[in-house]
Backbone:
């Protein structure tokens, strides 16, 4: 049953629907209630070693890279260790400085992406330590790494990644929780994050219940020549992944920008023909985001907001509300409606949803 659509119209919507179960499997047996931390035996690392890293560098391609950006934010927020994500494809073509006190983490659903494998090999050649966040057990990248976390998201057939993406960010939340608890994250904050993680499957289900309304919005917005996706800080990797999903399966042009960058150039693109999806969690940047939305509306741009609370009508045309979790974990839930938006845009435009043109599920060649 894993390899047929089980009554769904496409693998993609089947996999989107499977996300609550995928997240449960990623979390299963890994939350340590007693010490408010994550138990990740596959890291092959004791607390002293985990404490010694001064930096975290995350490598992956495409959606795996965007999931890595969310992972980098989680590590910085929870463990207060500087963390950055970089496309593995770029990393391997430059001459990267490999540092002994940097923890390298490679991200791959398939475990077979050649660019990511080559990046792992380059780190290892220069003596660095690499962990894998990988879905496919025993894959080339998993075998090449010094340890890691398997997603257990189950097989992902559709070319566009959905459940593996979400499970990857959940795996990073576990890694960040673990690194946080060997640094300065308090037991109370550890327990807060653990509780937030456990609430995710039920909250993803709540987002999926809005599929009909999101399908109607997708049909409305898919008719435009392109779409802009914006977000600030936690919303920014959500915007990047939302744009990627839309372009790869619907072929609607999509641009992602940090909301703060709009006025430095791309605001010139805003018009009634280019609607904006604004990712607006109810965090300390809410007011700044509302200001940006006001600036877009003032240029007659339509705004579709994805967030936690409905603002005054002058700020946005349409709203998709998602449940609140802990602020650090909000990007996970904010991503789910964008998957449904892209899926239903592709369906409305009669695209080949599971096998978009020009793309392969995993790029195993240079
Ligand atoms: C995801 O929707 C894309 N099709 C693509 O960006 C993908 O995430 C990327 O090629 C990396 O694949 P991997 O996770 O199997 O390494």
Residues:
């Amino acid at each position: 049953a894993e390899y047929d659509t089980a009554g769904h119209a496409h693998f993609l919507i089947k996999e989107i629907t499977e996300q609550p179960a995928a997240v449960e499997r990623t979390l299963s047996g890994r939350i340590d209630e007693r010490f408010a931390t994550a138990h990740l035996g596959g890291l092959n690392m004791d607390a002293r070693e985990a404490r010694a890293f001064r930096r975290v560098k995350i490598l992956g391609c495409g959606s795996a890279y965007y999931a890595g950006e969310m992972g980098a934010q989680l590590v910085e927020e929870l463990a207060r260790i500087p963390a950055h994500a970089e496309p593995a494809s770029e990393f391997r073509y430059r001459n990267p400085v490999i540092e002994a006190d940097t923890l390298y983490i490679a991200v791959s659903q398939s475990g077979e992406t050649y660019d990511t494998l080559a990046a792992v090999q380059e780190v290892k050649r220069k003596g660095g330590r690499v962990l894998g966040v990988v879905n496919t057990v025993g894959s080339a990248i998993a075998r090449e790494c010094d340890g890691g976390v398997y997603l257990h998201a189950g097989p992902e057939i559709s070319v566009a990644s959905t459940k593996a993406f979400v499970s990857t960010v959940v795996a990073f939340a576990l890694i960040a929780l673990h690194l946080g608890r060997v640094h300065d994250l308090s037991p109370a904050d550890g327990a807060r994050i653990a509780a937030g993680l456990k609430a995710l499957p039920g909250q993803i289900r709540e987002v999926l219940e809005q599929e009909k309304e999101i399908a109607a919005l997708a049909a409305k917005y898919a008719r435009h020549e392109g779409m802009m996706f914006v977000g600030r800080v936690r919303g920014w990797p959500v915007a990047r992944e939302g744009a990627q999903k839309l372009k790869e399966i619907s072929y609607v042009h999509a641009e992602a920008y940090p909301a703060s960058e709009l006025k430095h150039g791309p605001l010139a693109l805003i018009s009634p023909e280019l609607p904006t999806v604004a990712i607006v969690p109810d965090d300390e940047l809410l007011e700044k985001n509302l200001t940006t939305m006001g600036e877009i509306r003032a240029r007659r741009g339509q705004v579709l907001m994805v967030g936690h609370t409905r603002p005054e009508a002058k700020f946005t045309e349409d709203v998709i509300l998602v449940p609140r979790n802990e602020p650090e974990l909000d990007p996970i839930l904010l991503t789910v409606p964008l998957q449904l938006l892209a899926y239903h845009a592709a369906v409305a435009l009669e695209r080949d949803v599971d096998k978009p043109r020009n793309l392969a599920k995993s790029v195993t060649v240079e």
